[in-house]
Amino acid sequence: MKEYNPETDGRAFDYNSHGHQYSAHRQTDARIAEHVQRALGDAQTILNVGAGAGSYEPIDKYVVAVEPSEVMRLQRMARGKMPAIIGTADDLPFDENSFDASMAMVTIHHWPDLERGLKELRRTTKGPVVIMTFDPDALDRFWNAAYFPDLIEIERRRYPPIDVILSILGGSCEVIDIPIPLDCADGFQEAFYGRPEAFLAGDVRKAQSAWGFLPSGVEEKLVQNLADALVSGEWDKKYGHYRTMPYFTCALRLIVSNNG
After folding, report:
1. Which pLDDT does position 259 carry in this prediction?
2. How confident is the prediction for the chain on average, in pLDDT?
3. Hey, which residues does 85 pair with through a beta bridge?
4. Distances 54 to 29, 103, 110, 131, 257 between C-alpha atoms, Å
5. Backbone CA torsion sign across 168, 156, 239, 211
6. Which sequence spans correspond to the domains of the chain?
7. Whether pLDDT at 71 is above 70
8. pLDDT at 23 > cutoff 90
9. How much is the pLDDT for 20?
10. Per residue in 208-242, is it b (16+ CB within 10 Å) or e — as a string?
């Protein structure tokens, strides 16, 4: 496994330029949310860092959101969420132990300073720190590695290894493998494990940040490879059984870190 280098691998996606339709495809999936709710436990005050449009925020808790992108902050307000504080993970404007719990949902791979950001979460949180992310060592278990190898390599470099996250957070940690439902409402790549045609839609890909890091012309080539495989029947011959799998467990992880 290549050593993770936060200076080169923690590359931020420009949501102000490319995230205008993000929340249309990246929404809370209720079944995944159940895992998040259990991890947050009985916490009443929750900090959500890199909050985006507000996916997975509990509706029955007091949530303070921190989000650096204006475009994403506006989208959360359009969805009826409370306004987010302008800020970044590595410099949170809160005292120690200000919140019962904190959460960061599929965002830490965007943070330029992963270590400082995670330590800030731990500093400001009395109880569990809940991180949703993808395990870079499990990304090739998904069929899209066969059709989008360039994309998967980018993802593998961007997502920090699980053991790196655990070593920074410290305390008592649990890593939970999250099964993804066939009709998942949250449009990350693995959400479409049984709906490959979705990748042919440009607006779906725009809600998956990795595509924005491909060299010019590569995205079109990869998408055409999949389109040809769907027309010829190659994809269904090899992977058609995914279309009826109710759940698929691949690289999605929930990391729960408790003090002590």
Report:
1. 83
2. 91
3. 66
4. 12, 11, 16, 14, 21
5. positive
6. 6-258
7. yes
8. no
9. 43
10. bbbbbbbeeeebeebbebbbebbeeeebeeebeeb
* Token pair listed for 22: 């993000």
Per-residue pLDDT tens digits for 202-211: 999 999 989 9
Q: Helix 149-158 and helix 218-232: axis angle, to 10°?
A: 130
Q: What percent of the chain has a predicted confidence (pLDDT) above 90?
A: 83
pTM of the model: 0.90
Q: What is the 3-state secondary structure (H, E, C) of 37-68?
A: HHHHCCCCEEEEECCCCCCCCCCCCEEEEECC
What is the Cα–Cα distance from 254 to 249, expressed in whole angstroms?
A: 12
Phi, psi of 62, rounded to the nearest 5 degrees: -90, 110
pLDDT value, residue 109: 94
Residue 182 class from Cβ within 10 Å (0-12 exposed, 13-18 middle, 19+ buried)?
Answer: middle
| Strand blocks (E) in 61-169 | 62-66, 101-105, 129-134
**Which residue carries 């839609």 as its tokens?**
201
Taking alpha carbons only, the member of 199, 134, 141 closest to residue 161 is 134
Strand 45-49, strand 62-66: pairing: parallel
pLDDT digits (tens, 9 = 90+) for 145-175: 999 999 999 999 999 999 999 999 998 999 9
* Architecture of the domain made up of 6-258: 3-Layer(aba) Sandwich (3.40)
